[in-house]
Amino acid sequence: MTPPRPSDIVYYPLIVNDPRVYEWLIGLSFPYLREHGEAWYAIIKQPIDAVLAELDAAKVINALVTVNKCPVRTIRKALDNGEDIYLGEIGFDRPEDGKLLAPLDVEVDKKLASGCVHIIFRLLPSFIAIY
C-alpha cells in the first residue's frame, strides 16, 4: 500500500465505470470521467500530504508520533523488477460524522487521542481493479 500518486488518476474511470464495480458504489457520477478522478485525487491527497509531512518532521527529530489519518490507501502489486501495478484503493478513517456510533459514543470517540486503542475506525468506500 502507498499514498496515492497523480498517475493513479487514469485508472479511476476505468475501474469505476466497470459494471461489476459501479453498481455497488453510491453517489458517484456515471459515467465517471477523468475530471471526477482528478477531483477525487485532490480531495484525498491534501490530508494525506499533511500526515506525511507530520511523519517526515518526526523523522528529523527521531520521534515516535501517532497521526489522525491513514496516509496510505492505494493498493499496488509489487513486481520483481521494482515496478508496481495499480490495483485500487481502500481507505481507513475515523468517522467524523459519527455514523454507526451511538450518540454518546460519537463524543467519546472524538475526544480520544491519536493512537488510542479504543478509537473506532471505518472502512471507506473505495474501488479495486478487477482483472
TrEMBL record:
This is Uncharacterized protein. It comes from Collybia nuda.
